[in-house]
Amino acid sequence: MKKTVEDKLAESSRVIGATAAQSETVSRMAETLITAFQRGHKLLAFGNGGSACDATNFADELTGRYERNRPGLPALSLNTNTSDLTSIANDFGYEFVFERPLRALAKKGDVVVAISTSGNSPNVLKAAQAARELGLTVLGFTGESGGKLKALCDLCLCAPSKSVARVQEAHIAVIQIICGMVEDAMFPDAPKAH
Fold first, then answer.
1. How far is CA 48 from the centre of its chain?
2. Which strands form 43-47's sheet, in the order they lie side by side?
3. Cα–Cα distance for residue pair 66/191, rounded to 1 Å
4. Segment 115-166, tens digit of pLDDT
5. How far is CA 13 from the centre of its chain?
6. For site-directed labelling of 130, which of 9, 99, 173, 191 has its Cα 20 to 30 A away?
7. How many CA atoms lie within 13 Å of 9's alpha carbon, on the beta-carbon side?
């Protein structure tokens, strides 16, 4: 078991380390969010399964705090309203669970964060396509190939692995980095919370 732990941690470190090759994309994602927030716009994030957790964490770090005691930023996870999710899935189909609330809540200038480890989740693709139609900026988080989602994104981080677990680990590392960059840029004088 010890060897398994060591091997998995080594592989996780390798994938996260290799993600540094996309540091320009990550920097541009942070800059995009900073500009949007400065102009009074919001972030709308979504994904399935573990990616749903990542989307919710992204929104939470911005509406709550990352490291600094500062005002909350307008960020929503479209994964958290179970009444919306279940009624839309029941009445229209699961592929619409992000697209319908996105169309209801988004305004021009908002930023969408679409997360799919395969890049091919139908409900994520449908919402990303709606975001394009609405003229929103789409930031994508996918796995190695980018899948179909990559073509719908203004900026796309493609974690360099085929393993869902390793892709999700890279995504959350990058999300945490972006939240820190946004917070530091917007609230440089806010005191550190911990």
1. 11
2. 75-77, 43-47, 111-115, 137-142, 155-158
3. 11
4. 999 999 999 999 999 999 999 999 999 999 999 999 999 999 999 999 999 9
5. 20
6. 173
7. 6
Can you tell me which residue has the tokens 């709606």? 130
Q: Is 131 exposed, middle or buried (0-12, 13-18, 19+ CB in 10 A)?
A: buried
Cβ atoms of 26 and 178 closer than 8 Å:
yes
The two structure tokens encoding residue 140: 């994508």
Q: State which H helix or E strand residue 42 sits in.
A: none
pLDDT, residue 194, reads 79
Q: What six digits make up the tokens of 119? A: 């890049």
Which pLDDT value is given to residue 73?
98
CA end-to-end span of the chain, whole Å? Answer: 34
Alpha helices in the chain (DSSP H): 2-18, 23-38, 50-63, 82-91, 99-105, 122-133, 164-186
- Map tokens 């939240």 to a residue: 179
- Taking only Cα atoms into account, the Rg of the chain, rounded to an integer number of angstroms, comes to 16
